[in-house]
Amino acid sequence: xxxxxxxxxxxxxxxxxxxxxxxxxxxxxxxxxxxxxxxxxxxxxxxxxxxxxxxxxxxxxxxxxxxxxxxxxxxxxxxxxxxxxxxxxxxxxxxxxxxxxxxxxxxxxxxxxxxxxxxxxxxxxxxxxxxxxxxxxxxxxxxxxxxxxxxxxxxxxxxxxxxxxxxxxxxxxxxxxxx
Length: 179
Ligand SMILES: Cc1cc2nc3c(=O)[nH]c(=O)nc-3n(C[C@H](O)[C@H](O)[C@H](O)COP(=O)(O)O)c2cc1C
Known about the structure:
4-stranded antiparallel beta sheet; 4 strands; NADH Oxidase
């Protein structure tokens, strides 16, 4: 099968990582894949924060877990929203027409580039819970999110420490053709 199609069909969310950094060159290639995603009118109004500092990654996870607990979502203090991955990429964007779709394109490029280079990844929407009223930390400042931009989503990645999970079945009858 074509390698790109194989990667698209074979990708799975990975939720266990080795305690081993990703070489800088590979990380740069993965970010480049994100930067080369399409965006409406080629505005590229997005920003990528690449975090390899374990303390900051743990701090982010702690803030999100705290936010979820405050909403009475089922979370334990020792849960780690990034599954202890060595790299977290936070994507933020200028909220405007199509910004969510633009970011989605970048996310999928990053995930597939990670897979092509042999890394596992997981898209993490739970970072939105870092933003809660009781949090005294300026999250945008901590994550170097530019003025006028808002946090969208995160991706964690690293060397997998698990076999790829089984493929999840796809819903049926959700494609129509007009011939
Ligand atoms: C927008 C978005 C947000 C997600 N947020 C999380 C998350 O916070 N934590 C997590 O473990 N997985 C998260 N996922 C991963 C999904 O749970 C996963 O993609 C889905 O269950 C399908 O499994 P697969 O990726 O292995 O095919 C997210 C995926 C997307 C697209």
